[in-house]
């Protein structure tokens, strides 16, 4: 559990700084610590609920969560996540994971170019586009087990949404997705409450450390940091897909 606590803390700091990091939790828990993959996924998803609420609260207090976009994203994500969970047993998840990996790679490389608007005031996205993004993110996240931020962030970067707003929206949409998935996991008896509790507490602590770091960094530097994190996550996901296909 000490090793689990260290993993949760480091992942939480990464999430607080960049919004990306949760996707690395499952591979570390399973491949490094030897935890059963189903129990690792269930515990991680449940831990995302309190840690996601902490992240959204901390970002919102700093004005980094556009409320209109956040509510529309979550509203569209909930029914789509339910449909994605129902389709998970028949859809080609590996193909979708590869698409997510390529999307991440494109978004990360775009962020590294440094051509975004940086600290400029956010330009509100149109409601139809936000609803499409929310529905697509909810469906794909539930279908593949990827976090909502993991799916949404690269798209927001490609749309030149300011970095802090993109991270805040990614955290917001992860909450209803994790909640719906956790209800199913609890019903299936897959949740280890001790494992989930340790991950939740340490992740929340890490997020509390990482959030002020993100807001203290110059926006162009934060954009590059996020780009690096997204590219690393993209490569990790594409490698995982390739290994599974062998």
Write up this protein.
There is one protein chain. Helices cover 80% and strands 0% of the residues. It has 246 residues and is mainly alpha-helical. It has one domain (2-245).
Please outline what is shown here.
80% of the residues lie in helices and 0% in strands.
Q: What does the secondary structure layout of this molecule look like, with pairings?
A:
Layout: H1 2-18, H2 25-32, H3 37-61, H4 67-87, H5 93-113, H6 127-144, H7 148-158, H8 163-187, H9 193-216, H10 219-245
Q: Which structural traits does this protein have?
A:
246 residues, mainly alpha, 10 helices, 0% strand
Encode the helix/strand succession as letters: HHHHHHHHHH
- Tally of contiguous helical segments: 10
Quaternary structure state of the chains depicted: single chain
Whole-angstrom Rg: 16 Å
């Amino acid at each position: 559990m000490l090793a689990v606590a260290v993993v949760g803390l480091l992942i939480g700091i990464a999430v607080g700084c960049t919004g990306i990091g949760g996707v690395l939790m499952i591979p570390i828990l399973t491949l490094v610590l030897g935890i059963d993959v189903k129990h690792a996924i269930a515990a991680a998803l449940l831990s995302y609920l309190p840690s996601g609420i902490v992240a959204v609260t901390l970002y919102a207090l700093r004005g980094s969560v556009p409320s209109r976009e956040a509510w529309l994203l979550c509203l569209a994500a909930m029914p789509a996540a339910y449909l994605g969970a129902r389709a998970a047993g028949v859809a080609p998840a590996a193909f979708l994971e590869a698409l997510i990996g390529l999307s991440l790679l494109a978004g990360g490389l775009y962020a590294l170019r440094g051509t975004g608007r940086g600290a400029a005031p956010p330009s509100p996205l149109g409601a139809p586009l936000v609803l499409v993004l929310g529905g697509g993110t909810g469906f794909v996240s539930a279908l593949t087990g990827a976090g909502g931020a993991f799916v949404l962030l690269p798209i927001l970067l490609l749309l030149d949404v300011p970095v802090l707003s993109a991270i805040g929206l990614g955290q917001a949409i992860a909450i209803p997705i994790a909640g719906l998935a956790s209800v199913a996991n609890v019903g299936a008896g897959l949740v280890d409450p001790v494992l989930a509790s340790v991950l939740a507490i340490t992740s929340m602590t890490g997020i509390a450390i990482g959030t002020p770091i993100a807001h203290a960094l110059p926006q162009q530097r934060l954009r590059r940091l996020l780009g690096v994190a997204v590219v690393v996550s993209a490569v990790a996901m594409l490698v995982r897909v390739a290994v599974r296909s062998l």
